[in-house]
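USER: Study each token:
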Amino acid sequence: MASRESSHDSSQLGYGTHRTPWDPPVRDPAAYSLTDHFRRRLRQPGRYVTLPIASDAIRTGQLRWNRTDGWRFALVRDGVRYVIVVGDTETNSPVIVTGWTEVASWAEAVESERWREEDLHTIQLRGDLSAAPNEQIPLRIRPREIDRPMEIGSHRITTRAGLASVVCDECHGQYRSKTELLSTRCRSSSRAGYDS
């Protein structure tokens, strides 16, 4: 990945003066800088996105245009889909905006040596919370078993199978939606919430 300070010859990267946001982005990971948001995601427990995965997705992943996010690269490995969103692709300074994981095939993921079942519960719960952020989703929380805390907002949450809410390990608050997690500051934490 490129740093913000590095310079590239735009002709080598495929960028010219006539590029538009709708032109497919280049597949050279070195051309992309990382946003602060993406850097934070790399450090968050339960994200499972890494720089090597982002590079592989840019090089070989499926490319799709999304009206809300722009260009997305997607790569499926061991039953899990890695999604990498890029921006400013019409400029000489494209960036990796964000990235996440989705369970593409629960059966394949469980059979792989890469994933533990708790990892898959974490990925699925994070996806369910993001898919309907304003809705309470007790029925989608209830089957999840997550012992290692994952961060959403300023909270570090876990849950047990059968519970209809997630619980913050620090303030012990119980939440059923992503909006509740993001709009309520953890009473025991001085950390700022970064998840979106």
User: Anything to note?
Assistant: The first strand starts at residue 33 and ends at 34. The beta strands are 33-34, 62-66, 70-77, 80-87, 95-103, 146-152, 155-159, 166-168, 174-175. DSSP finds seven helices and nine strands in the chain.
